[in-house]
Write a structure and sequence with these properties.
Length: 188
């Protein structure tokens, strides 16, 4: 799956939290990050490969079956060409109308930004969306996400742990539970 947005939205943090949360649930994970040339506002994509069995893949993820989209910028060049037909796309609802042609994909808009603002922390929009994806797919439980987030937040950002946990729980609770359950298939 791909997590896409622009620099400064916490895309790489979302990828790390998902990866560690999946590992905590005895799944196998590979995580890669792509960064554009700008520190803020440039393209950023985290590719997370999760499986029930040991993974044997190249570190470059050429295609996937799901995407979390935080921003419409760069999506048509960095993510959409890599999605298989029928892929699940969970997108921040405010950007859905700005996205390129989504025909042939299962799109679930989710008001992550609105929920983040309601709980008083706009910076946690990505974690709200990540937790919603996990509730929608059943991939990782919210407790595993919270534990993983606490592991990856750097010491100089510890003041955000409580707000991040609140964001994860709010996103998980607000999402349509198992609207698109994940299944693992062995790819030869």
């Amino acid at each position: 799956m791909f997590i896409s947005g622009i620099g400064g939205q916490g895309i790489q943090l979302m990828g790390k939290v998902l990866a560690l949360g999946a590992i905590a649930e005895n799944l196998f994970v590979q995580l890669t990050g792509e960064y554009g040339g700008a520190m803020r506002g440039g393209s950023t994509v985290a590719a997370v490969v999760i499986g029930a069995e040991r993974l044997r893949a190249l570190p470059v993820v050429s295609e996937g079956g799901a995407a979390l989209l935080m921003h419409d910028k760069f999506v048509d060049e960095s993510v959409m060409p890599k999605l298989r037909p029928g892929s699940l796309i969970v997108a921040e609802s405010s950007i859905v109308d700005l996205l390129p042609d989504l025909d042939g994909h299962h799109v679930i808009p989710f008001p992550a930004k609105t929920i983040a603002l309601e709980i008083g922390n706009a910076q946690s929009t990505g974690l709200v969306l990540l937790a919603a994806y996990c509730a929608i797919t059943g991939l990782v439980d919210v407790e595993s996400l919270v534990t993983a987030m606490k592991q990856v937040v750097p010491s100089y950002r510890r003041q955000h742990v409580e707000a991040n946990e609140k964001a994860l729980r709010a996103g998980f609770e607000a999402a349509p539970r198992l609207a698109a359950p994940v299944s693992f298939e062995v790819v030869a």
